[in-house]
Amino acid sequence: xxxxxxxxxxxxxxxxxxxxxxxxxxxxxxxxxxxxxxxxxxxxxxxxxxxxxxxxxxxxxxxxxxxxxxxxxxxxxxxxxxxxxxxxxxxxxxxxxxxxxxxxxxxxxxxxxxxxxxxxxxxxxxxxxxxxxxxxxxxxxxxxxxxxxxxxxxxxxxxxxxxxxxxxxxxxxxxxxxxxxxxxxxxxxxxxxxxxxxxxxxxxxxxxxxxxxxxxxxxxxxxxxxxxxxxxxxxxxxxxxxxxxxxxxxx
Length: 251
Fold this sequence. Notes:
It comes from Streblomastix strix. The chain is an alpha/beta fold. It has eight helices and seven strands.
């Protein structure tokens, strides 16, 4: 069946677009077979050798092949090697936002924000039971934290003391949960910080039974009484003659 030159050109253009979009770049002999110019191997070799002399439709076979290669470059762009991204300089506005103090009790600025740390182990806090603000300065809340040293293969215990008003955190490592260790840790806290009030959330580590069989809570009362006496002795010999601090343990 004889085809007109326009029909051949239209079919060639459609086939070229299809090959360029769906296949990787192909050689001239494969192009001739896929374009259905001929199905004979002998003719394929002859058309390949004389592609610039044999006309098919309105163009030579070599011209059709160059059109195909041009179309292929549009759809088969070589991928660039993934290069590490250079760090972009932080905008000045973001730097200023990070420098904003995030204490909601010291500023009424709307720009102040709170840094909320998500922790699934935190218990729900009630405002009346665990206030985030105390009228007296030097109010601390204590708690025990545990970690496991994978090198020494032993458990490490820490006494966490956080200032309720300023959110200043003091971390003191202790050997065990005995009354003596707790006393030493609280003594370090009082010697390094102004302490007026101490409270805990009643966690097991602070209310568990001691080795002597007595309540750890009773040990804590005894600890606080001794700490009061030691603090009073220190303040009596202090050059500043500051008034004695009144320490209270709230369970």
